[in-house]
Each structure stands twice: as C-alpha cells, then as structure tokens.
Amino acid sequence: MPTSTVEDYVKHILLEEQRQPEALVPMGRIAAALDVTPSTVTAMVKTLADSGLVTYEPYGGVRLTPPGRKLAAHVQRRHRLLELFLVQIVGLDWSEVHSEAEHLEHAVSERLIDRIDELLGHPSVDPHGDPIPSAAGVVREPDFPTLLLCPLGAPLRVERVSDQSAEFLRLVERSGLVPGNGLSVESRSETAETVRLRLDSGEEVSLGWRAAAKILVQPLVAAGKA
Amino acid sequence: MPTSTVEDYVKHILLEEQRQPEALVPMGRIAAALDVTPSTVTAMVKTLADSGLVTYEPYGGVRLTPPGRKLAAHVQRRHRLLELFLVQIVGLDWSEVHSEAEHLEHAVSERLIDRIDELLGHPSVDPHGDPIPSAAGVVREPDFPTLLLCPLGAPLRVERVSDQSAEFLRLVERSGLVPGNGLSVESRSETAETVRLRLDSGEEVSLGWRAAAKILVQPLVAAGKA
DNA sequence: TCTTGAATTTCGAGTCATCAAAATTCTAAT
DNA sequence: ATTAGAATTTTGATGACTCGAAATTCAAGA
Prior knowledge:
Chain A has helices spanning 4-19, 27-34, 38-50, 66-88, 97-104, 110-119, 166-175, 209-212, and strands at 54-57, 61-64, 156-161, 182-189, 194-199, 204-208, 215-219. Chain A is of the alpha+beta class. In chain A, helix 1 (4-19) crosses helix 2 (27-34) and helix 4 crosses helix 5. The longest helix of chain A is centred in the middle third of the chain and has 23 residues, at 66-88. The radius of gyration of chain A is 19 Å and the shape is globular. Chain A binds a DNA duplex through helix 3.
C-alpha cells in the first residue's frame, strides 16, 4: 500500500497536471504545494519513479504514469467525496471541509468511501464544483470560462470555485457566489482591475481580477438550465 | 502533537489498565495488542516516559501518568464516537466499524468530533456498550457481571460486548445478544463449559464459557428498566 | 559566446518507528 | 538456595521521510 506521503505527492502532481496539461510538473511547484524543501522533493520523486508512479526528467520535472494517475484519481475521489459528505451529511461549513478532508482522505477505507458515495447519490461534483473522479479513476474535466473571460451582460451560473482556502471561500459565500447561483457581469474596469457583478438576487458585488479569475461560470442559453 | 503511533500506544495501555486496574501493564501485553516485537515496545515506552505520558519500571511495566491518561481518553473518545457515528449515521455494520474507527481516530479534528458528538446527541456508550469518555477526558467505567457470573433465571439486559473482533460481533448479532436486548440464563454446565440462555424473543441459545464471559449484563430488578 | 541567477540535485545528516539476535533479569519450581 | 524458562532489555541495523549547505545545471540576456 502507498504511504500517505506518496498519496500526497501524486495528488498534488495530478492537481498541477490538471491546471497545466501537457507541461511537465517542475519540482518547485511540488515543493511549494507540499511545503517541503526542493531537495526533499527530488529525493521523493526518485522513489516515486522507482515505484512506477511517475516518469522523472532530471531538471525537467515529472509526469504521472497511468498507474500514478489512477492512484492520484482515487485520492482525489476520496477527498472530494469526503468534502461533500462533511458539508451535506455532517453539516460542516464548506470553508472548513478542505483541511478536514486532507487528513481523512488517507484514513478512509474503500468500503466507507463507497458507502458515502451511495449515501450522496453518486454525485459528480464536490461543494466547490470540482469534479469527482469515478470509482474507476476517470476524471471529467470540463473547461468553464471565468468571470474575467465570459461575455458581458449574459446570464451565467456559478459552476466552480478554484481556490480552496477557507478565507476565500468565506468571501465567496458572503458574496453569494457559491456554485449554482445565477448572475451576470455588468462591466469590467481595465484600470481598476475590477469586475462588477449583478446577482440574480439583485445585489451588486465587485471583485478584483485575481478573485474573478477563480470563479468559473456557465453561460446560460436562455433563462433555462443549460 | 503526538504521532498516531504514540496515540496507539497510550490507547492500548489505557485499555489494559481498564481491564486490570492497580496492575502495571507489562510490555508483552502492549506488544501483543499492537502487533510489534517486545524490543520495539521497550524502545517506544522509553520515549513515552521521556514525554511524561507514562511511568516506566524496567522489567515491571508501565502506568499512564495523568497527561497520558488524558490523551488516551481523548483517543478512546474519538474511537467510540466514530464507531457510533459509522453505525447510526453512515449505516455501516457494527462488525466492521471497529477497524474503520481505528484509522479515522487519528485523522479527525477536534472540531469534527464535537460535531459528531452533537449529531449523536452526546451519547454515553458506543455500539458495543463501551462508555464514551467526556470531552474533558473523564471515563465512567461501570462494572457489570458477565453471563458467566450473573444469577441464574433472573431477567437481564445485555449492556456491553467486550470483544471487538468482527467475527465475534457477527456471532453476537446472529444470536440476538446486541446491547439492549433482554434475556435470562437458564443453566450452566461445568463439564461442557457452556451457558444456556433464553432470549426475550423466546429463542434458546448456548454459548461457550469464553464467549459468555465477553457478554456483560445488567440484572433487572423487576420487569422495568433499572 | 559568456555570464549570471534561479532551479535543481547531491551530499551528509537526523528523526521516528521498527526488527532480529544476543544478553540480561526475574520468577517460580525444585 | 539454585536454576530453568519466560519476559524483558540491549545492541546494531534498516526504511521512510525530512532538512540544510554546497555543488551543479539550465536558460536567458549581455
């Protein structure tokens, strides 16, 4: 069985690959994500390569092998199912479930995860809108525009929030930008680097560009649900 | 923070102290409980003593210090709340929750455990009838007679099952001896080393002495609930 | 092409938890 | 009192993971 350290490494490598497909994942990113020194990553990555979980190009970076990808997808599945479970069944706040799931993902049995999956009705996304890999390890990664890149004025629905920090999630919740909610982009200011939003509730909110880029949306064709 | 290994050591030491108060816990028992070699226990116990969690008498055994006892009670609390949670909320079978909780007990946050405690209505015993320590770390250890030592013929209620192995628990469930159920002891046979039971449901069951000693019961005064 | 600064790797070392084999200590029976 | 046998401790070693400091490599600009 892989140790929880190994699971953490492949999990973060997968995350990096998902945000930049094609590219090799450089050591530095892994070190930053796991909060360890670069020399530790170099050492660890070699043992991952020995176990056949990644391919390693010195001074280049790593890429998951099929077995590595499968393991990583399983960890991601556990993590995201746990997050949803903790929000929906246990009643924790979505801003606190990420760090909780971080620990639990290495401790839950396959049996328990299956039961949780069943309890939740085989969901396809977690509370942040991130897709949940299937039991077979397949991930569907749809590619939504952000509030920074979507058309002005058109009706939108929040699909996904791509920052798991508790602080950001609390802001999102306060602003009414949780996945599922409807809104439209009123205007963008190049100089102020802000985006002005009108929520379906009528409220107006403005976000900085960094924040706006983290909110992924689905343009709705008419008033219906695309 | 204590490592999960340290938590496991103090947890099992507490368990041994609970079944034999007064006595020092010998190394061998710990080694057997944790499935490690005696030399490992000796080494580990020294570091526990250095951390002030146990007092160690070479060739004698160990005893928990107040801080050690407190830590152990917290682990026990997490374990038992998790067992009850997995049975009542998640719907797992009570024969499988022990090993699941064994892993989760080291991964859950204080926050989550408090939430689970609340969700369950601050229960006082787990599915096996084992008492759940309070958040402050206090354990109430009532002392019930077993099916081997209780009066014959008198009405009884199953209080507790002191063997967590999945196999034994499945037997207990099949026989209708889960905590809460009523019964009486018909007879005991010295030579066959068996106990003959009559359940409130009317069924008759017989158990060997080893098994009977693991079922703790409460003698009921009349027909009411004592 | 040369140089320089950032990223990466190498090297030496340390912690934690574990084991097997050998030595020691204790206990209980003679 | 001796002593055999069980329990325990000592010793030396290993694997997994980590660090810091020094050396190396790479890529980009002069």
